[in-house]
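Students often ask why we bother encoding 3D structure as a string. The short answer is that it lets us treat folding as translation between two languages. Here is a chain of 672 residues written in the first language.
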Amino acid sequence: MYTKIIGIFICALLINTIPLTSGNIYLSKNKQDEKQIFDCEMSSVMENEVDDIGWYSSLALDNDDFPHISYYDYSNADLKYAFWDGSTWNVEIVDSEGNVGRYSSIALDSNNYPHISYYDYENKCLKYAFWDGSKWSFDIVHSNRKGKIGYYTSIALDSNDQPHISYCDYDKRTLNYAHWTGSNWDKQVVDSSAQMCVFEYFGDYTSIAIDSNDHPHISYCDYENYNLKYAYFTGSNWNKEVVDSEGNVGQYSSIAIDQYDNPHISYGYLENSNLAFDLKYATKSGGNWNITTVDEPGDVRKWTSLALDSNGFPHISYYNYWEGALKYAYSDGNTWFYQTVETNGSTGCFNSLCLNSEDKPCIGYYDWGNKALKYACLQDEIWDVQVIEIDANNDNLDQEQNYCCGYATPIYYNEPLAQSFVPCYKALIRVELMIVRRYSPGGFTVSIKSDLNSEDLTSVYLGSDEIAEDMSWKNFDFTDIEVTPNQTYYVVCTSENTQDVNMYYWYFGIYNSYVNGCAWVYHNGWKVLTAGGFPEMDLGFKTFGLDTNIPDKPLHPSGSISGKIKVEYNYTTSTTDPDGDQLFYFFDWGDSTDSGWVGPYNSGDTAEANHTWIKKGSYNIKVKAKDINGAESPWSDSLTISITKSNAIQRLFYKFLQNYLHVKLIVNSIWL
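And here it is in the second language, the structure alphabet:
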């Protein structure tokens, strides 16, 4: 056997084969290496499960320092709004007409009423919503039938509570601005020379602020030249200037205006040497720009948000990818100070910073690892972190290797692949793998092992039509299992009927991109996966878990084992939770219907559910439990019920008896 590189597009069309070295490994290479690496990183965020809440979060504080947050519900494609009323969080859907809410930005008026700018994905237009004290009102600010307009919105209100919005035209690559005059939207192209909206999801942020004369100031990135740019309106025309041109700069910018109408901007600097972002800060005073590198962690993606305190000193929130952490930096005019706000999973994306009346930082943000909208505020030097809304799939990102070097290796039916990992959580819930299917192979099995030569701890089988051909993260949801933290486990992938062009490919990273494990292949026994020119390979994977014990297997359902159609029957079960958590129960009635999750019940208490079968036959009833943290038990043993039709003679007799009694009652009433 010999190693090959197979040239493919993302859609997995075969291009050519080139011999590389001896061995038994086949590798797949995308035609555009750098773009593939970028696409892989984008997939790690964009191809999450559909249960995903908190994207494009934007924060504003009212006169009582209560937070108000606009955000995008990726699960349901809705624009949502959350606010704290002093005792609890209130969450509501603002707009659900189609796919709406991306690139949301919020501002509060003098009555503390929210105004939100956002993008309508289906109609490809910029929209605006505001609360008038009793209802939400909506307006289409800018639409273009020939293209997409309204990406990367940022909103600010002037002294008359009139909205000003910066955004970009995706097709024309221009920076745009809209202002409500009181009767109509005044729309302008601010900069047509800068290449805006190069990427659909990341980096191209616009940011707007209003000065003491109600004039707008906008920071943005020129992707044509990779410069940070700044535009401001004088009252009659727009002035534009380059703030920073040293290297690839300007991504994720955020702007604030001080009491002297001087601009302050936070932004990212991309280091070409290692594809990492540094955090930079620029301020203009006396006609000159002063630029400072605030933090040099060498991460991969970073959102920044800037606010100025009562002394005009800058405060910046930002995301450190390598640490998976939300970070915060501030200056006292001489020195920068740094804090880590939260490191629970990959948390801190789409962060938005405001300072309260005491100059304390408050941040709204998206927790990618837990798929949740969160809010953190510094109180007595301790960060108070609150979960506002979390998706229904309430598990946590545990281990991951999401770096993709642009190559993938096939999974042959007789040579399964594996990736070792070391979990931190006590319960393993599911995995996501960077897998792509090509043409029509057989089925695909993902299993978890404690040793490569041992039996499966859990597994899940999918048909080939359930695995997409696009390069994205594929979810494999098996029966939850308990694992021992800090011990090695293996994700093992086995395929059926893979031959010729019908194949599965597993993308990988190199240079030991996951330090707690490595890639394995079965070829006359399990061996570490190696190939010439690809040192220290790790396959693309994510594990999701919970720091809780799994509920015990429930007792099999108790109830009738025979019955009639259209008659309701009651079934009970119970189990215990090792942590004493409350439990929900899910009954599978064996007829392609279920009870949904019923409960919660206290651990050990009896749960019950009712069901009516409408067709005769034998049905296997089973039940599983889930604790309040989301950890699911194994299925119970089944109870079989035999359902038959009611006896025809009995039915006729019952009908005659009912009619007889009815007639008798009528006669008696007439006689009386």
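Translate back mentally: The helical segments are 33-46, 648-671. Keep this in mind for the problem set.
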